[in-house]
Amino acid sequence: MTGLDISFYILAIFLLGSSALVAFRPRPIEAALWLILHFFLTSILYVIMGSHFVAIIQLLVYAGAIVVLFTFVILLLNLNPEELGLKTSVSWASFVLFLGGIGAVLLCLHVATPELLAPLSEVERASDFGSIESFSRALLGRYVWGFEVAGVVLLLAVVGVGLLAYKKPKGSKLS
Amino acid sequence: MNLADYHGIWILLGIGLAIGIGAVVATHIFASKRFYPNKLNPYECGIPTEGVGSTRFSVKFYLVAVSFILFDIETIFMIPWALSFRDYVDSGNGPYIFVVGAIFLFILTLGLVYEWRRGLLDWNK
Amino acid sequence: MLDSLFSSGWWTDERILWVFLLAKILLFFGVVFGVVAPVMIWVERRVAGLIQDRHGPNRVGPFGLLQSLADGIKLFFKEPLLPSQVNKPYFLLAPIFAVLPAATAFAVIPFGPPTTLGGFFETPQRLQIAELNVGILFVMAVTALSVYALVLAGWASNNKFSVLGSLRASAQMISYELAAGLAIVSVVLLSGSVDLVGIVESQKEMWHIFPGILAFIVFLPAIYAETNRTPFDLPEAEAELVVGYHTEYSGIKFGLFFLSEYAIMTTVSAMCVLFFFGGWEFLPGLNWDQIGIDVVESLFGTLLAVFWFCFKVSLFLFLFVWVRWTLPRFRYDQLMDLGWKTLLPIAIFNIVLTAGIIAFT
Fold first, then answer.
1. Residue A34: helix, strand or coil by DSSP?
2. 3-state secondary structure A88-109
3. Among A7, A44, A161, which would you mutate to test the B interface (most chain B Cβ atoms within 10 Å of its Cβ)?
4. In whole angstroms, how far apart are CA C20 and each of A18, B13, C11, C17, C130?
5. Residue C254 belongs to what domain range?
6. Chains in touch with B (≥3 Cβ pairs < 8 A)
7. What is the pTM of this model?
8. Last residue of a domain, which of A92, A108, A125?
9. Do residues A83 and A159 share a domain?
10. pLDDT per residue over A84-108, tens digit each?
């Protein structure tokens, strides 16, 4: 076990813990906070794997943009745990049980398929693996159609937002 | 680029945490505390509190957030394109890379025009 | 004496780099949080006095320079008020959340050219706390995270003014983040690099302000909006919202919000200088090499470049203050119109224009 392995396992424990708290905290906004921590830890995981660009994107898009939307929805609805029909707090036993279960599954996987966890050999990965330069070379070379199609998908999403969330007022000035 | 490049960030995060937590904890230890119920009322410019603190708000904020996500993702797609733009130009593929980006930006602009025409960007309506 | 100290065997290369890193952190962090932020608060109040034809703080220390220090000490011993309606743990967490992005955002800002410190290092070392080659994206990501402090403060305060203030602030910040992001795409196009040192080095011949004037026109209002400064200070429009999201905050907790606002201001001013005004380069079209000053090898040259960079940043900081006491505040619909209907189209147009000029000339 190198220092990197140890830091990976510590990180993994915190990752699982934060993701479990997202599910188990009764107030939605607390869950959103834990989700931010979760995304932050995930981006550290990407850094450890050497994918520096993906790590930043994880922070920028997920933690910086998508959770903003979540918190807006939460504040918009402004529901209390009581209104959602949830208990004010979930028992710690179920939290521990959940983590224990996940941990057991992962341990089984670890024992059964050790080759999944073996790091890539130097031959398999290019020297600038994970850097933004290699990403843009791949994106604009081999996957250029995917790049354009992503634009179309995003356009569809914009149209969808307009259709779903906003009705054009007819006749009256008030919407 | 390797993991050692991140040491500075961890140290800064640690310092930030220490300052934040330290200041909040220290002020609760050292500062004077003479509380009474009226002092702890929610701030309402001196008049008694009306209604609940958190009110529901306009759906516009939600629309802004959704549009933000979509355009933000498009911006992030543009950065690798912008980064390798000069490499393509230098190797004589300038028109190709320009068209690739222009199509993508055109699609993005369509989305913006759609939102604009539909009135999603009009705050007052 | 230095030779005997360094030949003792403890100074391996790795340890020297660690000490260098810690020195950079101490210097940069100390300057931003210990000097720039307090002095800026003083400058803000003095300039406000100047512009409004009154004195401003002039009693504590020479010219009132120690006023911020006195205020800081006072804030520390103020009652740590926890209003009865707040959600206590999150109320206390919000100021800490505000400090974290402010403390990490400038990690990738280079405050001087890569230097050997007058021959001390064999290869030039960067004056940057974290040498990430995705520097721009890191700053964008970290400043994006600073939204949560406001949302959390507003929500946890459970006060009408706070909630409204935090909503306004976050909607405004994300709207202008888009414009800023697209302006940054043009900067990346111009320099062909996302590394902040690389961006400055690409401006050796010509600063980006000339080819990127449109990007700058978009970027400048965007950073004012992202830092919630006048004319975009609607989140704390005192006439309608008291002070917005930190209405319920007092004492040092308010101080932390205030401190991080000034630290973020410093970071974005530095970004402006790095992106458009040549970083530590001397003048547009005239770099240090051309006037015979070696900023890499000679210690004097390095210090001169660092000083020149700091000078440019302080000009931008002064602009922040000047604008605040000159311009009135926008209305909220005007703010959203400016962000979505003016700055965003200009930014998109500018990308196409810049890319077209680079590709076809």
1. helix
2. CCCCHHHHHHHHHHHHHHHHHH
3. A161
4. 35, 18, 12, 5, 12
5. 79-360
6. A, C
7. 0.84
8. A125
9. no
10. 655 555 667 777 787 788 778 877 8
